[in-house]
Amino acid sequence: MTSIPKDTRATIIPCLRYRDAPAAIAWLCDTLGFSEILVVPNDDGTIAHAQLGYGNGMIMLSSIFDTEFGRLMAHPSETGMRVTQCSYLVVNDADAVHARAVEAGAVIEMPLQDEDYGGRGFTCRDPEGNLWSIGTYDPW
């Protein structure tokens, strides 16, 4: 059992890699509603590290690099678009986010629907194939 207070910001932070991290940051902010907290660009335009916030949660991301940590992760394009995890984003209005995602060209993998367990949501891929489940269901 952890002793971290319940009102602490998120203690699990997904980390993602992108071939075009600047474009991914723009898409995640414009389409899903993230905000830039910190973006550390390299001289060549790649992203060394970025932190994007949403509510009291965060994701971290970078460009793809051939580093010790980078070699531990696969990009969806390297695995036939199969992934081993999906990030879930709790939103107030799943219909509005779905409309923005469709307009931004997201591949919708599971349609917008009312869920048996409560809430309304959908599952899509960002432009590089990372899987996002988005909905109003709040498990807390």
Protein structure class? alpha/beta
Radius of gyration: 15 Å
CATH superfamily: 2,3-Dihydroxybiphenyl 1,2-Dioxygenase, domain 1
Q: Which H/E pattern describes the elements?
A: EHEEEEHEEE
Assigned CATH class: Alpha Beta
- Low-pLDDT windows of residues: none
Q: Approximately what portion of the residues adopt beta-strand conformation?
A: 35-45%
Annotated CATH topology: 2,3-Dihydroxybiphenyl 1,2-Dioxygenase, domain 1
CATH architecture: Roll
**Global outline:** globular
Summarize the structure.
The chain has helices spanning about 20-30, 95-105; strands at about 15-20, 35-40, 45-55, 55-65, 85-90, 105-115, 120-125, 130-135.
Walk me through the structure.
The protein is of the alpha/beta class and 140 residues long. The model has no long low-confidence stretch (mean pLDDT 92). The chain is globular. The protein has one domain (15-135): 2,3-Dihydroxybiphenyl 1,2-Dioxygenase, domain 1 (Roll). The chain has a 4-stranded mixed β-sheet. The chain has a 4-stranded mixed β-sheet with strand order 5-8-7-6, with helices on one face. The chain has 2 helices and 8 strands. It has helices at 21-32, 94-103; strands at residues 15-18, 35-41, 47-54, 57-63, 87-90, 107-114, 120-125, 131-135.
